[in-house]
Write a structure and sequence with these properties.
Elements lengths: L1 E4 H6 L1 H9 L4 E5 L2 E6 L6 H20 L7 H9 L1
Parallel strand pairs: 1-2
Antiparallel strand pairs: 2-3
């Protein structure tokens, strides 16, 4: 994954377009702080596998949390009052 600044993206959009067209993901930063990850619309299989792995990690983390003591039905009833 290539990293570029927001300034580079604004001043040289064709450079970023070439990178994404080549199948590379581009990490855009502003003053060193991450802003966006630009991915090609027709990503590679490696990008798809990485995306699926990241989603699985997030879902596993949510499943490890303790269930809430408040029921969804009770929240819905309270919001309607």
């Amino acid at each position: 994954m290539k990293t570029i600044s927001l300034r580079t993206l604004v001043r040289e959009p064709l450079k970023v377009k070439r990178m994404t067209r080549a199948g590379q993901s581009v990490h855009v930063t502003d003053n060193g702080e991450p802003l966006w990850i630009l991915q090609p619309a027709n990503g590679t299989d490696a990008d798809e596998a990485e995306r699926r792995r990241a989603i699985d990690e997030i879902l596993d983390e949510v499943l490890r949390e303790n269930p809430s003591k408040i029921s969804a039905a009770k929240l819905l009833e309270e919001s309607r009052r």
